[in-house]
Amino acid sequence: MKWNFILYRAKNVFIKILQLNRHAKPEEIAALFVFLASSEASYITGQAISIDGGETAGQCLKALWKTS
What distances in angstroms separate CA 31 from CA 5, 24, 46, 47, one per listed residue? Predict the structure, then answer.
């Protein structure tokens, strides 16, 4: 019983920390485009990069916790 409570608290804290709970600023989106267009990103290929403040990862975690 104690472990269930600890896991419940841990996953709720982790999800809250992960999500930024705000919309992205235009300059935050632009910064990713600038980086991807630069030579520093020349080795990055075929990636889908989410700019969502952790929402995508949070939804995946929520789905995982529901199945366990």
Answer: 40, 11, 19, 16
